[in-house]
Amino acid sequence: EVEEPEVEEPEAIILSGEVAPYQNEGLTIAAPVEWDVTATTMFDNLFTMEVPGTEIVGLIQGGDALDFPGVMAVIIMRVLPEFIVDQFGEGAVYLGTEVLTTPQNMPVVKIEFEADLEGTPMAGAFYTLSPGASAYIMIALAPIDEWSDVGAAMDAVAASIEFEPDLATLQMAVDEPIYVVDEAETLEIVLPTGWQAAATDDPTLPILAVSPGYDYVAALTATRDMDAEVVALLDEALVDGEVNDDIMALVMDLMSDSMSLDEDSLALEPDMSEFFVVRDELVLRMVGSIEVDEGVSMPAAIYVGLRRDGLSALIVFGDIDLALADEATLIEILDSLLFIR
Q1: pTM of whole model > 0.85?
Q2: Could you tell me the CA-to-CA distances from 53 to 8, 71, 160, 198 in Å, in that order?
Q3: What is the chain's alpha carbon radius of gyration, rounded to the nearest angstrom?
Q4: Pairing of strands 274-278, 178-181
């Protein structure tokens, strides 16, 4: 009879429940006192976390660590979790998404996954949150048989993140609509009650507005580059009550110039396109998908406002069905745009 070799079970990781605060670059986190936590500024990392005697690690990155601006990164993480997990390597498996909340009432999107790293089965999670114009990500990894011991503690660390006031730039219309001005102070919008918004340092997407349930984000862009020929086409469309090919070509040209968004990256559903006249403004609605990375597209709706003093657009990512149900609110935001200078 051949004896089966004994399989050594990993020791359970016991945590006392006591945490300690750590601060770096305007962020404060609370982590278990048993962990080794280091504040750093190397490789976009702000904190590294290690559990002594294990291969469990965690790190928090900010600033330029993500390719998408501010709260848009949070929505994209929520909408494209499989794409995010695929970036971790071939064979990574997406397990699920959860939304946590910080003491400052900021949502944290958690994407849980499993992956094989150099022959070792690992489990972990990505956590993404944004205080406004910037986005931060926390990555946690553990051998698959130890994740159950530390997963809840990693969740607690992510949910403990707090930002100093100069980083927490999200504005919220709590009881009534508020005015939101971009960083360059060139334009402003009226933000509806319950919505949040942040000004960014990206001139192509100067304001990001988020729906009350964080179901979708509407990125605002605008340009005043409207010459006499453009205004004449607009006047003709307003009089005729229809959008012709010249207007559509004009819209695509202006969107390409102001947002670097061209026909190759935009796939439209013709049956979903429609136009509205709001006072002296022609509003076009386009629905389809936008390529956010090579071979990867996500659902989007675009509302373009054409008027004599300029062009504006809301590019909506996230739950497009909910966004379309809120269409009147989106058009209201678009119509509220005022060019300051």
Answers
A1: no
A2: 15, 36, 24, 42
A3: 23
A4: unpaired
Position 38, amino acid: T
State the greatest distance between any 2 C-alpha atoms of the chain, in Å, as a whole number: 93
Q: Which residue has the tokens 């972990």?
A: 124
**pLDDT, tens digit, 9 for 90 and up, residues 29-40:** 999 999 999 998
HEC profile of the chain: CCCCCCCCCCCCCCCCCCEEEEEECCEEEEEECCCEEEECCHHHEEEEEECCCCCCEEEEECHHHCCCCHHHHHHHHHHCHHHHHHCCCCCCEEEEEEEEECCCCCEEEEEEEEEEECCEEEEEEEEEECCCCCCEEEEEEEECCCHHHHHHHHHHHHHHCEECCCCCCCEECCCCCEEEECCCCCEEEEECCCCEEEECCCCCCCEEEECCCCCEEEEEEEECCCCHHHHHHHHHHHHHCCCCHHHHHHHHHHHHHHHCCCHHHEEECHHHCEEEEECCEEEEEEEEEEEEECCEEEEEEEEEEEECCEEEEEEEEECHHHHHHCHHHHHHHHHHCEECC
Tokens describing residue 84: 């995010």
Lookup: tokens for 197: 């918004």
Q: b/e string for 248-278 if b means 16 or more Cβ within 10 A?
A: eebbbebbeebbebeeeebeeeeeeeebeee
| Alpha-carbon gap, residue 172 to 295, rounded angstroms | 35
- pLDDT, tens digit, for every residue of 252-294? 776 666 555 666 777 878 788 788 878 777 888 989 998 877 7
